[in-house]
Amino acid sequence: MHEASPPFDLPALAPGTMPRASAIAVRSLQGHEHARWDAFVDACPEATFFHRAGWQTIMEQGFRHDSHFLYAEQDGRIAGVLPLAHVRSRLFGSSLVSLPFCVYGGIAGGSGDVRQALDEAAQALARRLGVGHLEYRWREEREDAPDKAPARWLRKPLYATFRHTLHADAEQNLLAIPRKQRAVVRKAMAAGLHSAIDHDLERFYPIYAASVHRLGTPVFARRHFALLRAVFGADCEILTVYHGQQAQASVLQFYFRDEVLPYYGGGSVLARSTGANDFMYWESMRRACARGCRLFDFGRSKLGTGACDFKKNWGFAPQPLPYAYKLVRARALPEVNPLNPRYALFIRAWRRLPLPLANLLGPHIVRQLG
C-alpha cells in the first residue's frame, strides 16, 4: 500500500515527482513523453480516445488552457493516467476537468493504490489552483473509483452515451436499425445521396457552423478543427454527404482502436427533408465496418432532449454517464448547460445573430465552457 501524502502544493509537477511508498510516483507529462503515454492508453482497456496525449496540445494550443496530464509511474512503467485541464472563465468560473470539451475522462488504468495516488495529486492540484470544482468525466461506473468513497463527491445525472457493437457484415448493421429509421436511410439511398471523405474543412465547417447556430450554440473556431486534424492525423476524418454536387451534411469523426466516434456533425437546412443526416451516420457506420471497426460510439446527449431521442430511434440504448464532481471553493455546481432556464434568453438571442457575427464571437465564448 502507498502511504497517504500530507498536503502539498505540487511544486515539482513539471517534471518533478512525488515519491510514495511502494514506488508509486505521480509525474506530469512532458512533450517528449507523448509516445510513451499513448502506448499505455492504447493498451489500457478502460482508456478512451480522450485520454490520448494529443489532447494536451489541443488544450494548450487550441484553447489556451493550462494542462496537467498526470501519470503514475511504478517500477519504471506508466501504471495509470489522468488528463486534466484548468478552465478559467469570467462567465462560468474556474474548474479542473478531466477532460474539457471531451465526453470521457477520469483515471484510466492502475491498481487501487495507483488510482488513489492520482486522485490525491489531482485534489491537491485543485486546491493549489483554487478552482471551484474538480470534475472526472467517467464513461462507466467503477465501484473501485476514488470518488466512490464517502468524500463529498457529487453526481449530476445529466448525460448519457450511446455505444453499440457493429457486425462485420454491413447489411446486418443496416437490418439492426429499427424499421422506421431504416426506412429513412433507404429513402436517402434511393434518392442518390452519396458520401465522400474530405481532406479539408471547406465543406464541413460552414455546414457545422450554421447547424450549431440554428441550435443557439456558439461554434468552435475553424482552427480548432484544423488542429484536431493535424494532431490526430488519420484517426481524425471528415465524412461529407452530397446530393448531387451539393454538400448537405458533414461530420468530423475519430477512430480509436476498433471504435469510430462521429463527434462534430451537422446538416444543412435541406438535410432533414432529404434524410442526409441519417444517411451520414449510416455511411459512418458502413465505412467504419469496412475499416474493421467493431464499435460505433454515437457520443453523449443530454437526457430528455431531441438528440437523445434521435439516438434511441437508431436502436441505441442510453448508458448514463457517471460524471463525478468535488467542490473545492464553490458552494454548488454551476448549471452550465442549455437546459438551464437561465440561458434560454441567451440561446434565443444567439439564434438571431447574423451567422458571420456568431462565427466571429462564438470561439471566444465556447472556449470558456469546457
UniProtKB/TrEMBL annotation:
Outline the extent of the BioF2-like acetyltransferase domain. 180-312
SUPFAM superfamilies the record matches: Acyl-CoA N-acyltransferases (Nat)
In Pfam terms, one family for this protein is: Acetyltransf_6
InterPro entries the record matches: Acyl_CoA_acyltransferase, BioF2-like_GNAT_dom, PEP-CTERM_FemAB-rel, PG_Glycine_Bridge_Synth
Q: Which domain of life is it from?
A: Bacteria
- Bilayer-spanning residue ranges: none
* PANTHER family tied to this protein: LIPID II:GLYCINE GLYCYLTRANSFERASE (PTHR36174:SF1)
Q: Which NCBIfam families match?
A: pepcterm_femAB
What this protein is called in its record is FemAB family PEP-CTERM system-associated protein
Q: Which lineage is the organism of this entry classified under, starting from the top rank?
A: Bacteria, Pseudomonadati, Pseudomonadota, Betaproteobacteria, Burkholderiales
